[in-house]
Amino acid sequence: MNYQEKKVITSIIAGVLVLVTYSIYGMSKYLEIRDDLLNNLEFWATTMLVAIGGGIVVVILIQIIFHIILAVANEVAKEVAKKVSNVGKNEIYEELEITGIEDEMDKLIALKAMRNSFVMVGIGFIIALLSLYLKMPPAIMLNIIFISFSLGSLFEGLSQLYFYRKGVKNV
């Protein structure tokens, strides 16, 4: 597994944590208050803004921890590579090496994954508009949009993993 794949996996984990936390909090408040909460757009806006801010902090912390672990693993791999005979020396280090270089394949994978994310967000937006058309409370629409953005981000990460594993075709 290369650096880009590991980085995407940590982002997916952070996204899932934020979405699950938001969902648990929103559902618990809804079950507690019921009908009044569906008309309280201020509550939902505040909750979403806190979730977005908290999500940014969680992503930063997880990425910092990920890079610390990867740096330690690189140092261990360097030491092992020094002690091992010339057989397999480079493979051990290259397996864990942090590469900040992004080539054309990485850019193409990012673009294709972003396209998939936009499709998910677009579908969520249309469903949100349909919820208003069906005379559901506006809080439902807000939640659909928020969740579609979150799922779009997760789908982007999963798409990147898929493209890194299976390769990029002219799709």
Structure characterization notes:
The chain has helices at residues 3-33, 35-38, 41-83, 89-96, 104-133, 138-166. By secondary structure, it is mostly helical. The chain is elongated and about 65 Å long. The relative contact order is 0.15.
Low-confidence stretches: none
Number of contiguous helices: 6
| Range of strand content | under 5%
Distance between the termini: 24 Å
Outline:
elongated
Which structural class do you get from the secondary structure elements?
A: mainly alpha
The beta-strand count equals 0
Percent of residues in helices comes to over 70%
What radius of gyration results from the CA coordinates?
21 Å
Quick summary of this structure?
The chain is mostly helical and 171 residues long. The chain has helices at 3-33, 35-38, 41-83, 89-96, 104-133, 138-166.
Keywords:
single chain, about 170 residues, 6 helices, mainly alpha
Lay out the secondary structure.
Elements: H1 3-33, H2 35-38, H3 41-83, H4 89-96, H5 104-133, H6 138-166
